[in-house]
Specification:
Layout (H helix, E strand, L loop, with lengths): L1 H8 L23 H7 L5 E8 L7 E7 L1 H9 L10 H29 L6 E3 L5 E3 L1
Antiparallel strand pairs: 1-2, 3-4
Helix pairs in contact: 3-4
Length: 133
């Protein structure tokens, strides 16, 4: 009889049924820009990294990533000089050309301003302000 009463007044925690794992399909991993470009047969170039020497800010390096279609377009545009040029040599030649064009465009703009007869004078003032005439 005591056993009967003890069972009646003792709280018993209900045992939960094990939960079923969701069998939903996992979403496919997201594709990178390069993978999408390859699928669409488009050229791809990207700057992965830029290093700058803190001791000499005039020194830096770019790390580029590209696909074969981009290199094929560069070869078609004439950036392959030797038959045994590697892809990195061809891309480096193109990147050097792009940088050279940027420098030349900047220089030409500066020369045009200097030769235009328009002179810009700047005078520093108090409070970090400048007077431009």
């Amino acid at each position: 009889m005591f056993e009967y009463l003890r069972k009646k007044f003792t709280k018993q925690t209900p045992v939960e049924a094990p939960k079923e794992r969701s069998r939903a399909p996992k979403a496919p991993p997201k594709k990178s820009e390069k993978e999408l470009a390859n699928e669409n047969r488009e050229p791809y170039i990207s700057v992965l990294k830029f290093d700058l020497d803190p001791a000499n800010v005039h020194q830096g390096a770019f790390e580029l990533d590209w696909n074969d279609i981009f290199v094929a377009r560069l070869i078609k545009a004439g950036y392959q000089m030797e038959r045994d040029d590697t892809d990195s040599t061809i891309v480096d030649r193109w990147f050097t050309s792009v940088c050279r064009h940027i420098v030349m465009e900047t220089w030409e703009q500066e020369q045009a301003i200097l030769n235009s007869g328009v002179y810009v004078n700047t005078r520093k003032m108090d409070g970090g302000r400048s007077e431009i005439s």
